Amino acid sequence: MKAKIVSRLFLSVVALSLLIFAGASASAKEPLVIGGVFSVTGTHSYLGDPEKKTLEMMVAESNAKGGLKGQPLKVVIYDDEGDPTKARLQAEKLIQKDKALAIIGPSLTPTSMAILPVTSKAKVPLISCAAGIGITSPAHERQWVFKTAQTDQMAVSRIYQYLQKTGINKVAILTVATGFGISGKEQLNALAPKYGIQLVAQEVFGEKDTDMTPQLTKIRGTAAQAVICWGTGPAPALVAKNMKQLGLTIPLVQSHGAASKKFIELAGEAGDGIIMPAGKLVIYKLLTDTDPQKAVCQEYDKKYQAKYSAPASSFGGYAYDAWRMLTQAVEKVGKDRAKIRGALEGTKNFVGVSGIFNMSPDDHNGLSPEAFVMVKIEKGEFKLLD
Amino acid sequence: MNVLADLLQYLFSGLTNGAIFALIALGFGIIYNATTIINFAQGEMVMLGALSAISFYHLKPSLPLAFVGGVATVIVVGLVFERLALRPVREPTPLTLIIITVGGAVLIKGLAMLYWGKEAYSLPSFSGEAPLYLGTATILPQNLWVLGLTALLVAVLEAFFRLTLVGKAMRACAYNARAARLVGIPPGRMVQLSFGLSAALGAAGGILIVPLTMGMYDMGTMLGLKGFSAAILGGLGSSLGGVLGGLLLGVAESLACGLISSGYRDAVAFFILLVVLFLRPQGLLGGRE
Amino acid sequence: MLTGLLNRWLLLALTCLAALVTIDNDYYLSLLNFIGIHTLLVVGLNLLMGYAGQISLGHAAFYGLGAYTSGILTTTYGVNPWLALLLGLAVGSLTAFVIGIPALKLRGYYLAMATLGFGIIVYIVLNEAQSWTGGPSGLSGIPSFSLAGLALDTPRRLFALIWLMVGLILALSANLVDSRLGRALRALHDSENAAASLGVNTGRLKLIIFVWSALYAALAGSLYAHTLNFIAPGSFGFMFSIKLVTMVVVGGMASIWGSLLGAAVLTILPELLVVFHDLEVVIFGAILMVVMIFMPRGLVRGILDIWEQQKRWRQGRLSTGGRSAS
Prior knowledge:
heterotrimer; A: alpha/beta; Rossmann fold; 2 domains; four-stranded parallel beta sheet; C: two-stranded antiparallel ribbon; 14 helices
C-alpha cells in the first residue's frame, strides 16, 4: 500500500517536472533575448544588484525607442547568489531555454569561470563583469569570452607608480580572502620588483571579518611606510577605522574596490587622506571637459540616478559598458552570434565608463592602466591626485 | 613596538569580539535551557538589533532611544518567531527544530534584505572615536562600552535567574518541565520568556558592536555561528560557560590572527574548539547529560 | 512489498531512460545531473542521520575533499580522472576515519558542533592553500571523464554516468539497510545504550557508517568536479552542509527513496523560485519552515499522513451518514 503511494508520488513529481520542462517553446515573433547572470543576492549583492538594475534600465530604454534594429528586446536575468553551480545551471538555461543571443555577467571570477566552458561550447558571446585575468586569458582558449571590468594589474601599476613617485618603497599589504583579494595579492607581489617596492608584511582578512586590529598591530611592528588594502564591501572602511584606532599614521592606499561614495560614508573621519585608484565614473565631475569619458559617465550616472535615486557604481558600469558594446555590435552586424563575436573583438576606441576599450584577438578586455586615476579623500570628497 | 604591547592589543581586540560572542552564546543557552532547542536564528536577532537601532537613529538621532527601540523591536520579533514557527510544530524533534530555525534565519535575513537593502550602514560610537592609550596599546571607548555593558547584562541576568521568582521558575522549568508544571509554573510562558530574553540579548550585542563593525543584512550568520561555538565550548546551558566560551573564542581568534596566520584565523579557532571538545566532550563547564 | 520495491526500481530505470530519450535540452539534463549528484550526498547523509541517528553539519567537507582531490590530481599532476576518482574516495574515507574516531564519541549538539567546525576548517584550507587549490577563485580546466575514447563532456553522456551511479548507490544502500548491519543501525538509532547492551559495538558501527557516508560524498564530489570542469570553495561551505541536512529531512529520515525526493525538490525549488528575484530567499525560508512544521517526518510521510487523515475523515463521514454535513 505504502509502496504504491510512494510510487504514485514519485510519478507525479516526474510528471510535474516534465510539465515544467515543457514550458519552453519558440515562436517566430519572439523578441531578441539578452541574458544576464549576476550575484544579485548573497554576499556579493553589492556587485550584482547594480549590474542587474543597469541592464534592466537599458533594455527598457532601448524598447521605448523601438528596440534593436526594429526588433523588441527582452532581458532575462538570473541570480546565481555567487554560487558556481547555480551560475552554470542558469547559463545553460539561458542558452537552451531562453535562447539568449548573448550573455552579460556573471559578477564574480569563480562564477564566470564556471560558465565559460558552456557558453564557449554553445558559441554564445559572453561579456563578464568580473575582474580576474583568467577570464579572458589565454586568449586562444577564450574566443567567445570578453570582459569589461578593469584587470587588477592595472590598478596595481597605478598604485605602485604613485608610491614610487612619493619615495615609498616598504609596503605592507592587507588583502581580503576572496577571488578579488587573491588576485590583488598576486598582482601586488608580481609587480613589486618592477617598481622597486618591497612587501614587508602580507596579511589577509575575511570578507565578513569585523575587526582587523590584530593584522594591523602586526603591521605596526614592521618597517612599512604605507599600507595597501585590497577589498570590497564594508571591510576596507573598517581597516581605515582600525588604523586610526591603533594610531597607525602611515598612508593607507585602498584598491579600486573601495572607490565609491559609500566607502567615504562608512569610513567617516577615518577616510580622510586615503589614496586609491578609481574608475572615472566615481569622479567624473572632476574631469576636464576634454576627457572623452566625462560625457559617458555623466549620462550613465544621470540615467541611473533618475531611475533608482541612487548614484551609479563602477560595478553597474561594467554592465553598462557590456550592454553598449553588445548593442553596438548587433547594430553593426545583425543577429548572427559569430559575427557579433567578431564585432566585439574588433571594438576599437570605444569610450565606456570603465575606460577606453581597444579589443583585439589577443586582448578581450581592451583596457589600459589609464582607465584608472589616482584619487585622495579630503574632507569627505574625492580629489584628483594627478 | 614590543611584543608585550602587541599581545595586549590582541587581547583587547579578542575580548571585545569575545564579549559579543558571549552575549550570543547566552542567548543560545537561555533558549536551550527552556526548550532544548538550538535556535539558529539567534544570529539574525543580532543583525536585526543592529539594523533596527540604525533605523531608529535615523528617525531621531538619540543613541539611548535607538538602543531601546532596537532591543524592543527584536524582542517582538523573537516572541512572534516562537509563536508562529515553534509552537505549532507537530513533532518537536531536535532535527526538525534545527531546520525550522535555519529556515527562520533564512526568512528573517531575506526580509531584512528587502527592507534595508544590500547596503552597509554605520552607527556612531556611543562616546566618540578618540582612542585611549594604555602604554602603546590602544582601545576605543566603544570597546569599553562593549565590555562594560556585557558584564552588566551578564550580572543582571545571573541576578534575575538566582534572585527573582520568575527567574527561579525558569530554572525549575529547565531542570524538569513536568515537575515545574506540577507546582504551578506554566512552561509555555517560560518558553516565551526565554525567547524574549535571548532576542533581547542578541539585539543588545548587535547594537553594541555595530559602531565598530557596521551593519549589513547578512552580518548575523557568522556571528550566530560563533555564538553557537562559544556556547558549546563553554558547555550548553551553563551561562558562566557561555561567557567563558565567548571570551576564549574571541581571544583565540585574535591571537591566532596576530601570532600564527591571519588567513587561518578561524581555522585555528575552530581547531582549538575541536581539541577542547575531544578532550572534554561536554564542554568546559557543561555537566554530564 | 517485494513487488512494490521492484516497481520502484523499474520506475527509476524507466524514468531515466525516458528522460534520456525525450529531453533534448542541456539545461534540464544538467539539472537532473545535479539532482543525481545531490542524491548521492543525501543518501549517504541519511544513512548517518536517519539510520544511525548521528548529526553531521559538515558533510560538504567530504564532498569538497572528493572534488578537490579529483581536481588537483587531474589538473596539476595529469592523473587519469577515473584514477583520481578512486583516490578521491580514499582521501574522503580516510579523513572521515581519522576525524570520526574522536568526533563520534560526542553526542547530540556537541557532535553537530564538531562536524560543523571540521567543515569550516576544510573550507578555510580550500580557500587558503592557494598553491594547491587555486584559492577562492577556484580551480579551472578539470578534464571530463572519458570512456573508451568517448569524452563524457555533454550533459547527456554525463546523465548516463551519474544516474548509473545513483542507481548503484541506491541499490547498495537499500541492501545495507536490510542487512544485519542495518538492523544494528536502527537499534543504535533508537537507543545507543540498549544497542550496546545487546552486544552491538556501537563505536565501531558509528565509525563504519560515518566513513561510508563520507565515501558517498567524496564520490559525489569527484563526479561534480568532472561535470562542472571547475570547482571553487564556495560550493563546499557551511550553507551547503545545512542544505544537505535539509534535503535529508524534507525527503524523510531513514528513507532511501525519500533521499531522492529530498534532493530533487530542493534542487528544483530554487530554480522555480528564480522568477521571484529578491523574494526568492524569503519564500525558500518560508517553505522550509512550513514543511517542517506540518510535515516533520518529511514530504513522503507527510503527504501519506494527510492522505490517511483524509481517508479516515471520509470514512467517518460515511459512517455517520452525512450528519456532519448539516
